[in-house]
Amino acid sequence: xxxxxxxxxxxxxxxxxxxxxxxxxxxxxxxxxxxxxxxxxxxxxxxxxxxxxxxxxxxxxxxxxxxxxxxxxxxxxxxxxxxxxxxxxxxxxxxxxxxxxxxxxxxxxxxxxxxxxxxxxxxxxxxxxxxxxxxxxxxxxxxxxxxxxxxxxxxxxxxxxxxxxxxxxxxxxxxxxxxxxxxxxxxxxxxxxxxxxxxxxxxxxxxxxxxxxxxxxxxxxxxxxxxxxxxxxxxxxxxxxxxxxxxxxxxxxxxxxxxxxxxxxxxxxxxxxxxxxxxxxxxxxxxxxxxxxxxxxxxxxxxxxxxxxxxxxxxxxxxxxxxxxxxxxxxxxxxxxxxxxxxxxxxxxxxxxxxxxxxxxxxxxxxxxxxxxxxxxxxxxxxxxxxxxxxxxxxxxxxxxxxxxxxxxxxxxxxxxxxxxxxxxxxxxxxxxxxxxxxxxxxxxxxxxxxxxxxxxxxxxxxxxxxxxxxxxxxxxxxxxxxxxxxxxxxxxxxxxxxxxxxxxxxxxxxxxxxxxxxxxx
Length: 522
What we know:
The chain is mostly beta strands. It is about 0% helix and about 50% strand. The chain is globular and about 75 Å long.
């Protein structure tokens, strides 16, 4: 019997949603300000996953201009019905709530192309979608309560959607305000039609340490919903800070062909019970049904390290998103791990054989613009990322380097700058928006420079030509310290620091290598 290791999608893959169509499972996760947006992954057995496309993969599908870090694409849901795949999601601008909103896209093939977004005239976040036995379409989601009894009280609504008119129709129904009185952020709702009843699965407690899963049941999709007396039916908060996996929640159910049930959910691997530089990851949880209610991780009550997959016939293949078997080596332009900020990689860089050419841009890493940046999410706590940059194309005063990034306000970087007298090495620390830039001296003239980032748990070292240049503590960069929602990214950037850009840098080689087997967060 094959056992799949948790998390099934390591690194920043939060808010997972899953559906099964025939022999395939399809899964999407949040991507915030990084593009391409909303990766679509598929698997035959829940063990080996591959990226088949992205939902937001064309210029102009949505406007990301000026959206700051931890804004952007929140909490998608993927479903199949009426002969199509459907994804609903929210585009969020944390500084300007009037921008963005909930939207819907469809596709006949989950690999794409996906339709242009249909904006939905409904406030809130975390939209979901379900189809009833008559083929009617019901949208639901979360929003702040209009007359809250307490701070961050939310409510879950449901309303019919007309695919022909592409609008919400009929009466809106508020069906849930959380299982616990006083709970914050009853969110991430999903409705299911199971054995003649309607089930509502929702998170609550906020997507951090106190995250939890609750469930309710009704005879009609519009309610009224009766909560399970066991609510919250799943959480890790009762395990305390000694648990190395915290914040479990935002679950979505799926049934396997053999009739068994599973859930995907987010959680964070935190060695010290507080900090998680890898971000919120996707975990798999077995589910049983008892007395008409789902039981998560039956007999165990916590996310297991491994989940048995009875029907799997082979180990996850090399190159899948499983943490132990990602092939270390060159990350080529065609690799789906590449992301850019508020633009597609092909909009900021040019693929050149097995490398990228990155034209310099005036923007820096400090503002919510579209800088010259290409990066990948960190998926292993113990990792070595090495890049060789061809900098002969840099113009005077232009800078290129490697960055360990959480946000505009929180990152560390090592870079080379071309000056009138040649190349100079520098480092930068940015914490909470406070910047410390240091000139580290002249470098020997060369077309190529080697820069690297190594992580060992919470300890990071940035290097030039194998020599340590800068150290950083991942506990200062993770979301629990910075207030964001993301894990860390490692990438390459190039900037003219506000001057008209003239040059470029070529990423001659970029390698991502787990430093040890096991792929853990530890």
